[in-house]
Amino acid sequence: MPRLRDLGLSTGTLPPGPFNAITDVPGVRVGFATLIRDEPSVVRTGVTAIWPAGEDIWTESMFAGAHAFNGNGEMTGLAWIAEQGLIAAPICITNTYSVGLVRDAICALAVRDAAPQPWHLPVAAETYDGWLSDSASFPVTTALALAALDGARGGVVAEGNVGGGAGMICHEFKGGTGTASRVVQVEGVEYTVGALVQANYGARELLRVDGVAVGRAITLDEVPSPRPRPPEGSVIVVLATDAPLLPIQCQRLARRATTGLAWVGGIGANSSGDIFLAFATGNRIPGAEGLSSVRMLAPSAMTGLFQAAAEATEEAILNALCMAETMVGQQGRVAHAIPHDRLIEVVRSAR
C-alpha cells in the first residue's frame, strides 16, 4: 500500500527526514507483533513497541512530557513522568483490554535483561479494537509483547494494519499505525521531530487532507461506515525529537500533536482517548546519584519544533489511513480502506 507522498500528495511546509518516520530521530527503534486469526475467535490485534534509545534507556533516562487532549483512554506511567519528567523504559501501544498485560511485559523484559533499575513504571497505551476484533478473548500475550520489543529496528517503519493498530478504524475507514517526521533548523542547527500514531477515531465528514474536505466527498453511500454512528474512538501520538529539551518543553511539544490531529479532523470527542507523549533524546540522564549537566533549547526557539510536531502528527495519521488495507473482522464487519483513486481525485480537484 502507498503512503501519502507515494500518491503524489503531501501536507505541511517543513521537509521530512530520510525515512519520514519516527526512526529519523537517531537511536529510536520501532517493533511490531501482529495477531490475525479466525479461530477460536476472530482476532485482529497486536503490540507496537518504541525504544527511545535502544537498551541505553535502562541506564540513561530521557526527559519526557505528556498531554491528554481528551482523557477517555489509558497511558500508564504518566503520574511518574509528571512528577519526575523522565522516561526510563521502552514504550508500547496495544488494545484497551491488553494495556495492563503489555505494561507488565515491559517490566518482565527489564527483569529478563537485568536492567539495573530497582523498579519500573513503564508507559503502555491503548486504543479500542473491539469492533473488528474479539478483544474480550484477551488474545494478547506476554510473548507477543516481548516479540514486538525484541524485534524493534531503525529505518523504515511498517504502517497500517500492524502491531497495536491492526484492528483500528479512523474517520470511518480502516485505520491503524502511521508515522512521519519533520526536520527544522534552529539557529543553523537541524533537529528532527518524529511522530508515531495509533489512529482509531473520527467522523467521516470531518476528515481533511491538506485542508481539503475529503470525508464529505467520499460519502457513506460510496464507502459504508464499519461501525454505528456517532463514530468516536481514540488516538495515541508518540513524539520524539533529538532537540535538547527539558520536561516542561516536552510537555509543550506533546500538546502540539493536538494541532496536527485537528488538521486531519479530530475534535476530541467525549468518548475519545486522545493522549500524547513526547520525549527528547538531546539530554541523557544517568541513573547514578550526583549532578547531571543538561542543555535546553531557548524558549523562543520552540516554535519551529511546535510546527514540526503538528505537521508530523498530521501526516502520520494520513499515512495510517493510506497504508491500511480493507479488513473483515468479527461478525463479518468490514472496515474499508480509503480509496486512493478517490482521495487523489478529491484533493487535486480542490487545487
Brief overview:
With 351 residues, this protein is an alpha+beta fold. Helices cover 24% and strands 27% of the residues. Helix 2 links the parallel strand 5 and strand 6.
Q: Care to describe what's here?
A:
- The chain has 351 residues and is of the alpha+beta class.
- It has a single domain, classed as 4-Layer Sandwich (L-amino peptidase D-ALA esterase/amidase), CATH 3.60.70.
- The chain has 8 helices and 14 strands.
- The strands form 4 sheets. Strands 4-3-12-11-10-9 form a 6-stranded mixed beta sheet, sandwiched between helices. A 4-stranded mixed beta sheet has the order 1-2-5-6.
- Helix 2 packs across helix 3, helix 5 crosses helix 7 (302-323) and helix 6 (257-264) crosses helix 7.
- The radius of gyration is 19 Å and the shape is globular.
- It starts with 28 loop residues before the first strand and ends with a helix.
User: How many separate helices?
Assistant: 8
Task: Give start-end ranges of low-pLDDT stretches.
Answer: none
Task: Give, in order, the helices and strands.
Answer: EEEHEEHEHEEEEHEHHEHEEH
* CATH-assigned homologous superfamily: L-amino peptidase D-ALA esterase/amidase
Strand content: 25-35%
Distance between the termini: 24 Å
**Helix-strand category:** alpha+beta
Write the CATH architecture name: 4-Layer Sandwich
CATH class: Alpha Beta
Q: Kindly provide the radius of gyration, computed on alpha-carbon positions and rounded to a whole number of angstroms.
A: 19 Å
Our count of domains comes out at: 1
CATH fold-level topology = L-amino peptidase D-ALA esterase/amidase
Please provide the count of β strands: 14
Q: Given the C-alpha coordinates, what overall shape results?
A: globular
Q: Mean pLDDT, rounded to whole units? A: 96
